[in-house]
Amino acid sequence: MTMGDRLRELRLRKNISQEEVARRVGITRSAYSHYEINNRQPVYETLIKLANFFEVSLDYIIGGEQNGQISPVMSDTVEIFRLLNNMDHEKRKRSIDKMIKVLQQVE
To answer: What are 31-40's pLDDT values in tens digits?
Structure first.
C-alpha cells in the first residue's frame, strides 16, 4: 500500500474531506490531493502534522508498520518532533545539542 493509499484510507476512516484535512494541517487542498494520488511527497513537517492529525505513526504513513497505531516509543518521538517543530531555530539547535550530549553520556 502506498503512502497516498494510506492517507486516503485514514481520511475516509474519519469521514472527512481532503479540504478539511488540508485545513487542519495547514496546507492547500491541492497539495493534499497530490499526496493521496502519489504525485508529490509531503515535506517532513507536513508528515508530522499528518501523523498527529490521523493519530498514527510516521512509519505507518510512509508504508511501514501495518496496524497504524502509535507505539509508546513512537508516541514519545512524535512529541519530541512536535516540540522541536514549534521552537525557533536557535532554541531548536540548543535543544538538539543537549539531546546529543545526553545520548553520548548513555553510550
So the answer is: 999 999 999 9
Distance CA 86, CA 67 (A): 28
Cell of 100: 546529543
Phi, psi of 68 (to 5 degrees): 75, 10
What does the alpha-carbon distance between residue 43 and residue 76 come to, in Å, rounded to a whole number?
A: 20
Q: Distances in Å between the alpha carbon of 55 and those of 40, 96, 98?
A: 22, 25, 28
Predicted structure pTM score: 0.61
* Inter-CA distances, 44 with 12, 50, 64, 65, 104, Å: 23, 10, 16, 18, 25
Name the percent of the chain lying above pLDDT 70: 89
DSSP 54-74: HT--HHHHHT--SS-PPPHHH
